[in-house]
Design brief:
alpha/beta; five-stranded parallel β-sheet; two-stranded antiparallel sheet; 11 strands; about 15% strand
Length: about 290
């Protein structure tokens, strides 16, 4: 496997998309200086596996680490991201709060949850001009606040799908294709990233959300408000105004949908994504002292 890894990594700088690959690598791995890893923080590459870590994370991590020396030490975190680590760590996402951001080295983890690819065959003009959301709001203050402010507005179709702790906005679960019937889909962060954002952007719908506070493989920090999504205020005070504007200007809304879909299309080349993952791990390991 080491030979295969070396073959994949060799000569990448001569590819016509080398600048793009370097940019993607450096978005995910912001490290520039050499670093030490405290022994208590490390695990061997060969021990990043199912059984020791959550299976969805370990399966993806194994795929990215495969072929690197088995005894090399890495810091690895599975699960949702509450804060950025104090040592350089391979993980799913980073908090965009300026605190230890460079230490969160992003891999494409939990991909089965974040990278769904349902097909949207409904043209934007044929969709219902409302903002739609179905999801769990229990113990998620931002989502609860949104419902309290906007659930009764006619431009919104909001529902809480939590079955264990149902709220007064209780609603049945609906499929992703059902949601494609609406022009605007709300993407609100839960414990970390909004897991729906990738498939919303890949559809013919318009994502609506506050400026991201968490970044994952989708490169949330690189998304442009008004181009890739409709940005709303963190306190949700302007949502009604924004949705009314884009309902009244469907051409501008559809343009965002097109650009949003274009952004997601760059992740479709599986071989290139595999190479980028290797480049991220290679840079991470190369800077260890």
């Amino acid at each position: 496997m080491n030979a295969r890894r070396k073959r994949l990594l060799s000569g990448w700088e001569k590819r016509p998309d080398a600048d793009y690959l370097r940019w993607r690598r450096d978005v995910y791995c912001r490290l520039t200086d050499r670093y030490d890893l405290p022994e208590a923080s490390t695990v061997r590459v060969k021990d990043v596996r199912v059984g020791k870590f959550q299976s969805r994370y370990a399966i993806d991590a194994e795929f990215s680490l495969r072929g690197f020396p088995a005894e090399r030490e890495v810091a690895f975190k599975d699960g949702d991201i509450w804060e950025n680590p104090v040592v350089p760590t391979l993980m799913k996402a980073r908090r965009l709060n300026g605190i230890h951001e460079e230490n969160a080295v992003i891999l494409n983890l939990d991909s089965i949850r974040h990278w769904l690819n349902p097909k949207d065959r409904i043209p934007f003009s044929k969709k219902i001009p409302k903002l739609f959301f179905r999801g769990d709001i229990f113990n998620k203050p931002a989502r609860i606040e949104f419902f309290e402010k906007w659930a009764d507005n006619d431009m919104f179709d909001l529902g809480d799908t939590n079955r264990t702790h149902p709220s007064r906005w209780k609603s049945e679960f609906v499929s992703i294709p059902y949601q494609f019937g609406y022009q605007f889909i709300l993407a609100l962060e839960g414990y970390d990233m909004a897991s729906s954002l990738q498939w919303i952007m890949a559809s013919n719908c318009v994502p609506v959300m506050p400026k991201p506070t968490v970044e994952g493989w989708l490169m949330h920090s690189q998304l442009e408000a008004g181009k890739h999504y409709v940005e709303i205020a963190p306190d949700f005070s302007d949502v009604g105004e924004k949705i009314r504007y884009y309902i009244d200007h469907p051409d501008k809304a559809e343009r965002i949908s097109v650009e949003s879909k274009k952004w997601v299309s760059q992740f479709a080349d599986k071989r290139r994504e595999r190479l980028i993952s290797l480049l991220v791990v290679d840079k991470y390991l190369s800077l260890q002292k």
